[in-house]
Design brief:
This protein is an all-alpha fold. The chain is built from 17 helices and no strands.
Amino acid sequence: MDTVLFNFHDVLMLLTAFECLLFAVLLTATKNNNNLSNWLLVAFLFCHFLIPMHELTFWGKQFRIWLLELSPDVFFLFSHAYFLDGPLIYFFVRALLYKDFRLKKVHAWHLLPLAIYAVHMLQSFYLQDYATKSWLIESQHIAYSSPHLYFEALGRFLRVGYVLWCFSLVFNYRRQLQQERANLRTSEVAWLKLMLVSFLVIFGWDSALLSIKLYGLLTSNFNLELLNVVGLSSYYLNFTAINILIFLRFTSFAAVPTVNETPIFEAKEEKLYLVDNEIMLQLEQLMTVQKFYANPDITLDKLAEAAGYPAKKVSLTIKQCFQLNFYEYVNSHRIKAAKLLLADHGPQTKSITDIYFAVGFNSKSVFNTFFKRMEGMTPSQFRDQNGVNPAAKPAASNIVEES
């Protein structure tokens, strides 16, 4: 048999669909399968199983022949996934970052574009007679017709909007994290940013493809060669993005510390709140006497529990009394303690690595950055300026320090 049933592009799309389906099945079997973010990721992957299958059924010549023999009504069923993966990745990110996020009835409005598209497809395709539907598929006329192109463009542009919305979630998450945690690692959300960038690229590429089609519709001159190049390129980009997601899921997802989505307090509460001196004194006692800052896992909730006051009142007190957020407040005490250790001229002089661990930091880069922000110099420069002779340090602590 000399007939080639599939070209390389078809095989790539089949491989992408298979990976997404297999990964989704594997996730349902993980120990965290009751986690909302996990189920949202499963649904997102299932959408990305349906999307390449839609592309294959409509643009793959052999698939199109087979399905037309079965029924033209099979076509475009999977295309609805283009209106679902945007909301799903948005809700996945929210559920991943915020521990108090729950799906609510009000979130159903995100399905409105999908419902509008479904009504459009019902009127323009599924309610047509058999001969008309077959002709629309065989000639591919529907792919270049109005208003179908407008609806396709709506779906593609919405996906880009949802990814950009996800970036705003990550930005707000970082701000919220500083209200509740003292130790922040850039790597905690670096993988998430990489994942979002990869999908922003593929969604943006698909949007560019639809923009070219819309231009062709307006000018009545479709550049089929350009459309073919851009369309095929999107298959490879999608395959790459999916593999990045799979890699990150098994290497980095568990590292994300969750926070409350609802802010600890509103701006108006800060203006109305009257400082409680007892809370302020209790916090300072915990920090200066009990050295609560030295706990690397300190959080706002833990500090509030130790102080015996609600977390909101503790956060408001820190904000009003010291003009700092929780992250800045704890780390300012850590820097004060680090300065004393750095200025120590005794025989027990510690290395800078020992010092930043001793005061509660778990990252040297964060320690150096925060120290320089407060003191205008690095810890090494501070130590040199205060006359500590590095040669006097014990051999066990003789570590080359990075400034």
